[in-house]
Specification:
Helix 1 packs antiparallel against helix 2 and helix 3 runs antiparallel to helix 4. About 75% of the residues lie in helices and about 0% in strands. It is mostly helical. The longest helix has about 45 residues.
Length: about 120
């Protein structure tokens, strides 16, 4: 419903697939800080592909300012922010919700109870 509608859909699908790949590494049976951080880190990688074509000025600016190190830093900032926000902070939030017993029927709730 906005100017970024199709772009947001493309980014969302790519991020979801990458995040699911992160959880699939442990076959959806591990919900610790490592698995959550990997699932948060990975979506920063595939979104660079449409980003390069849809918003090339971001990448050319990074390239002209700092060369390849600038582009690599730009990509790492996406990945690290996902690791922190979607990985670590989400794990802290889920642990808090699971401690109330609201997630007892789900595998993530059972794992939090074991810890």
């Amino acid at each position: 419903g906005s100017y970024f509608g199709l772009d947001a859909l493309i980014w969302g699908i790519l991020q979801a697939l990458a995040s699911e790949a992160g959880f699939a590494i442990w076959r959806y049976k591990r919900w610790d800080y490592i698995s959550m951080s990997v699932a948060g880190f990975l979506p920063g990688l595939p979104i660079q592909i449409p980003g390069w074509y849809l918003y090339p000025s971001l990448y050319t600016s990074a390239m002209s300012y700092a060369g390849y190190a600038g582009v690599i830093s730009f990509i790492l900032i996406h990945c690290i922010s996902g690791l922190v926000i979607a990985g670590i902070l989400t794990k802290i939030f889920i642990d808090g919700v699971a401690s109330t017993g609201a997630l007892d029927l789900l595998s993530i709730g059972k794992e939090v109870k074991k810890s």
